[in-house]
Amino acid sequence: MGIKGLQGFVARVCPDACRTVDLREMAEKHRINHPDLPPVIVVDAMCCVRYWYTPESWVCGGQWREYLANLEDFIKAFMAAGIQLVFYFDGVVEEKKRDEWIKRRLKNNKDIARIFHFIKTHRKQPGREMFIVPSALPTFTRFALKSLGQKTVCTLQEADFEVAAYGLQHNCIGILGQDSDYLIYNTCPYFSIEKLRLDRLVTVMYSREDLCRALGLSLTHLPLFACLLGNDVVPESLLEGFWHKCLVTSPHKNNSYNRRTNVLLAVANYISKVPCSYSSLKHLEEMLPLGSDKTLLHRGVESYLLPGQQSPWIPRNITNCRMFPLEQQTAALCQDKEIFQLAKEQHIRSENYTIFNILSNGEIECSNSLEDECDTEIPGQALIYRPARQHIYSVLLESGKGGACPLVKEWFVYFGNPLQQPELIQPVQPSILGGTPNLKTLWFAKGPDMEKQRYNTFLACFHVQDGMEELQALEAPVAAFCCLLTYLMMQVSTLSLEDLNAFVALILCLKGKSAAQLAALQLAQVDSRAVHLGAVFVRGLTTLLMANSACGFPFRMDDLMPWEVFDGKLFQEKYQQSHRGYSLEELLEGNESLYTPFQNLKSFICKACMAKKRTIQSRPRGSGFITGTQQREFNPRFQQTHRSSFVPPYHNQMRGFLWRNPQPQGKK
């Protein structure tokens, strides 16, 4: 999370530490000095996603094709300058950061409530000052960059440490991010993503050396300086008394500065007079009200030491625990070394999704989604997809194979969950004839029968295994879309025929539309329920990623990406048209070739739901938004699309559209 106020302090009080730099020139200098090493910038991607997401629409579920085009442009700008990029993503939430994670999630809940209030009041998207990233944006960014040929790393510990270590070890020309911790690590230069001008490859470089000069410190003081200001290890609440003491004795107090700025100057002044030694650190630990844990400062300073680095504040014989990532500090749930190693390697290479976290320590989390807490008809996405996750946990942890199956700890954000502790979730075996295949078999066995078993196990996690033959006849992205939509219609009884029509029209009309065409689509107004459903659907795609990773990749991960099957504005348009009773002709944009595929996909979903005793009813909301029940006259020619319940005229005609060879996708 960085050090509160430090970034702003540097900009206001130490302008000499903020240098405008031309990245092309820096790359050229690097080539001259290191002819055998290409210039590389290591990117803290989690800091960057909100700057990369520039599409105008952000509340409707994401403009994924536009976003993918943006990322491609970003990469091309650096490639044109001969600069290679390496992208790092947080792969875990470390235990020491859990409280801060929870605090941010609860704050985000309030922000999201304000966004929905605005949408219901004004029927439009709020301004950028209320912007939050679309649900699951960091997850899909990771796969997007990988699909664009970039080196993408998912970390085994907090990303800032691994980013700083990579930058130092690989002699990178710099780190691109927006986290003041990069001012503290003794690593390569730190560049601002916020100040980056992509067209000119110019940005601001924050100089540690100039910051130290302004504060009267040396580089070795910076880790202690960070700890005494409050960071991920040392809570600010323990430091108030110390700050007061520093302020009283500081010669730098300036009434034109805010209190935080004066605290920063006062702490720097205090540290500058302390000898750099372990005994000085111990004295500070005795002086601070650290309670029972007198090693907080020690651990805080140590957390900034990169591999091979020493500090005068810490004796040489003490091991740095940061060198030992999460899975080595705890006993892994998965005892099979071959499975565990493969999951770990795939995790680091950004090839799987969340399953390493489950296999290593049985704990996963999911951040906020753009869900309306006032809409009691639609459960939180965390609850909608929990039955599917329980099946995935069972596949991974092999419940039912004898012995007690461990519970999985879930930190999932949804309305009514105070996040005071993780929810303990029981794995549940999916319904598969002959039982769930052994995980080793699923992951390592070869041959067409095994491909079929992977596909079947994946579908069973979403209760649609009976439709395997029909789904295999479709293009993979459409099959995955139908799998997810069928599951959603089964799980949420308040979803209507109009909702189903909107989703099916979306997948059919999206095909062939370019990012530019989708960007040009204008919405007269925004419906809050469609915003909610868009977020729920996109979170469902991450559940598909998890199931695909667990089942040995019956699909290519690229086929499960939102830019293949979803667009926020297009869904809004189809949702509003469907609920206002537009004809099928209008819904499908006058494209008669889509009528039969529309009926076939819809028939498949309705038939699967009816087999589970779920009849999908018509419930048009007209222009009423949220609670409206107005209906407009239906065109009799297309009335079947809108009848009160849909009896599928099912004749196994799935092969008529988006057909492919009816075999499971090859293993990834």
Automatic annotation (TrEMBL):
Residues covered by the XPG N-terminal domain: 1-111
A GO molecular function held by the record: nuclease activity
Classification via Gene3D superfamilies: 5'-nuclease
Nucleotidyltransferase is among the record's keywords: no
Subcellular location as annotated: Nucleus
A GO CC term assigned to this protein in UniProt: nucleus
Keywords: Activator, Differentiation, Nucleus, Transcription, Transcription regulation
GO biological process: fat cell differentiation; peroxisome proliferator activated receptor signaling pathway
Subcellular location, principal: nucleus
Assembly with partners or alone: Interacts with ESR1 and RXRA. Interacts with PPARG; in a ligand-independent manner.
Function as written in the Swiss-Prot or TrEMBL entry: Functions as a transactivator of PPARG and ESR1. Functions in adipogenesis through PPARG activation.
Name of protein: Constitutive coactivator of peroxisome proliferator-activated receptor gamma
Taxonomic lineage from the root: Eukaryota, Metazoa, Chordata, Craniata, Vertebrata
Gene: Fam120b
